[in-house]
Amino acid sequence: MPPPGYKVSVDVQVRFRDTDAMGHVNNAVYLSYLELARLHYWRTVTGSRDIKAIDIIVARVEIDYRAAVMLDTELACWVRVSEWGRSSFTMEYRLEEKGAGRLMAQAKTVQACFDYAAGKVKRVPEEFRRKAEALEAAV
After folding, report:
1. What is the CATH number of the domain that holds 107?
2. Residue 105 resides in a domain
3. How far apart are alpha carbons 132 and 128 in whole angstroms?
4. Residue 3 included in any domain
5. In 47-138, where does DSSP find H-type helix?
6. Is the Cβ–Cβ distance between 8 and 79 less than 8 Å?
7. Is residue 1 domain-resident?
8. pLDDT digits (tens, 9 = 90+) for 14-34
């Protein structure tokens, strides 16, 4: 069952290499989990699998760890766009224990749309915003 306000999720397999000497997922690994969810969201919205078409860069990350994730924990990482700016947008994430729905971590990232050829930020493409807003509004 999706948490309120979330439509997109990706399953995350916790691998042995994700864990540290204490037996739980190292806090730096959560960034990779967020990246998986962000890529899945982008592909869901755009329908593209062309990695060179991704024109966003992460400008900010914040993570609140709620419970320790261990090796055999099955995770679902929910993701949504929560705020739009002119050249950036904020995504929110909920990492939950799959099936149980127990909250393991919450996160936010700010993405800036980037023109790699010009080497500077650019406006959020209208088509991407329109499709993302339609996805978020779907019942």
Report:
1. 3.10.129.10
2. yes
3. 6
4. no
5. 126-137
6. yes
7. no
8. 999 999 999 999 999 999 999
